[in-house]
Amino acid sequence: MSTVIEGPAIAPDNPPAEAIKAKGSRAVSYWLYLAPMLVGTLIVVLVPFGYNVYLSFFHWKGGLAPMRFSGLDNYKNLMVDEQFWSGFVNSLFMIVGIVIIPTILGLILASSLFDYISKQFNDTVASVLRALLYLPQIVPIAVAGIIWSWVLATQNGVLNSVLEGFGISSLPDWLGNPNIAIYAVVLMVMWLQLGYPVVIFMSALERVDPALYEAAALDGAGWWRRFFSITIPQIRPEIFVVVLTATISALKVFAPVLILTMGGPEGSTVVPSFYAYRNFFELSKVGYGSTISTVMSVLIIVIAWAMLWFQRRNLTEEA
């Protein structure tokens, strides 16, 4: 009896018509699935952005006023506009208040809740604390502005009352002093932002293998050693997502400035998005406001693309 040895299956050079038809059907299904999102993106994002770029080449007061083509004049004026660059510097403060400090504190708080509070007490206590930290994220921004106006009030404000309790007699005018008003805004955005990284990082910690922590503890590694050697490397993708989304939020922050200071005092808390709003609706310089919006949009796209490229390159090198 002879034995028949079967060789590996070899794909035919010409796939059958049924396979080609099925592949084409799947492609059509994918595009039909994506069609609503593509149409929405076109209507809500791309068309308005294109019209905004178009307006940036005109001097226009809005409404029925005539539009006068100005070429690149708005862009040239923006490059030497001290108010814009001052607002750009304030955006760096927003990055500190929305990205750097909340991300670092979020990592420490999430690790503490996950690794200490939930074990020393129980998961319910950790969940309640997490919810309290996230609460500012769901508070309407108008309510947050009222709360912080009360906290930062010069007379009888919560913060100054605390400072007075420590014996400080020269109390700062948080919202009236142009030298410190930006720090008051940073305090508010930090309070608003902190819960977001805590929730993301606690979810990320759920997927970390507990055996890693147990092995490190058996080897005598303390909490901080486990934090730097296990926690941060294991949840690095989530850290990247938080940094990316928070950076974009910091560069287009608007509502906290509008609610808390209206850009004052003396323009010390103006950020680019608020400066664009002021040119649009207060100064009737629609073309110039469009120019500011266009420049900031391009800047955000470039920064987001660079961060994604950097992250993808790191993943490729690790693979």
TrEMBL record:
An annotated GO cellular component: plasma membrane
Bilayer topology annotation: Multi-pass membrane protein
Record-annotated ABC transmembrane type-1 domain positions: 88-309
Listed transmembrane segments: 30-51, 84-110, 131-151, 180-205, 239-262, 288-310
Source organism superkingdom: Bacteria
Location in or out of the cell: Cell membrane
Alphabetical list of CDD domains matching this protein: TM_PBP2
Key words, A-Z: Cell membrane, Membrane, Transmembrane, Transmembrane helix, Transport
Pfam family, one: BPD_transp_1
Matches recorded under InterPro entries: ABC_transporter_permease, MetI-like, MetI-like_sf
SUPFAM superfamilies xrefs: MetI-like (SSF161098)
Biological process, per Gene Ontology: transmembrane transport
Family: Belongs to the binding-protein-dependent transport system permease family.
Official protein name in the record: Lactose transport system permease protein LacF
